[in-house]
Design a protein that fits this description.
Blueprint (H helix, E strand, L loop, with lengths): L5 H22 L3 H27 L14 H17 L3 H14 L12 E5 L13 E5 H10 L24 E4 L5 E3 L1 H21 L5 E4 L2
Antiparallel strand pairs: 1-2, 3-4, 3-5
Length: 219
């Protein structure tokens, strides 16, 4: 509830008095006169709003500090890259590249081994359009979403060399997992995200007689 002031009480009193006066005039048959008066009041309010917006437009701009390390040019470049990527993943070239990867490594998630709806994940966008197998990873929708909710892929100098790279984010790895259909490497952060899924997958393998994962530390 708003705070009552002498000005607000006076305005409310005037509003009710005007409303009662107009009601009385309508009852007496002066409908056209009341309608004309209300149209004039609406025009007056509209002009007041336009005048206020005009003054606000020409007022001194409010200073908004830029985020550290960002600029308008960089923001535009990021937006341009985002839309270029969206167009690329709809292209025939990307469809063929995905098929090459799934033909080579199967149609199951390389982390949890779930099959069905799979995504092909880029661990970096620097090689977009000419990806090596090490730049891509087959993931189920759950694992793919889980990664992007928690982290971003590597950029610039943080992208590790192709022979020594986390398969999920492209940063320097900490462990190597020997498994079928191909070995994968993970950094500590990605291992933390997917540890339960990997452990559950390895436990399931033990039950159904598949080979266990062989985990080694990468130095």
């Amino acid at each position: 509830m708003g705070i009552s002031t002498p000005e607000s009480r006076k305005a409310a009193k005037q509003h009710y008095a005007d409303r009662n006066r107009k009601t009385k005039r309508v009852m007496e048959g002066d409908i056209a006169g009341v309608k004309k008066e209300e149209e004039a009041e609406a025009t007056y309010r509209e002009n007041q709003i336009k005048e206020f917006l005009k003054k606000k437009k020409h007022a001194a701009p409010v200073y908004k500090p830029k985020k550290k390390g960002t600029s308008l040019t960089k923001q535009k470049e990021a937006l341009k890259a985002k839309y270029a990527y969206k167009e690329y993943v709809k292209s025939i070239d990307w469809g063929e590249r995905k098929k090459q990867l799934t033909d080579a490594y199967g149609h199951a998630c390389e982390l949890c081994q779930k099959s069905g709806l799979i995504h092909v994940h880029h661990n970096n966008y620097k090689t977009r359009g000419h990806e090596h197998d090490e730049d891509l990873m087959i993931l189920c929708k759950d694992c793919h979403d889980k990664f992007h909710e928690a982290r971003h892929v590597a950029k610039g100098d943080t992208i590790a060399p192709i022979e020594k790279r986390c398969n999920v984010c492209a940063e320097a790895p900490h462990i190597s997992i020997s498994k079928e259909p191909r070995d994968i490497k993970l950094c500590a952060a990605c291992l933390n995200i997917f540890f339960r899924r990997l452990w559950g997958c390895n436990y399931k393998n033990a039950i159904i007689g598949r080979p266990h994962f062989n985990v080694e530390f990468v130095i």
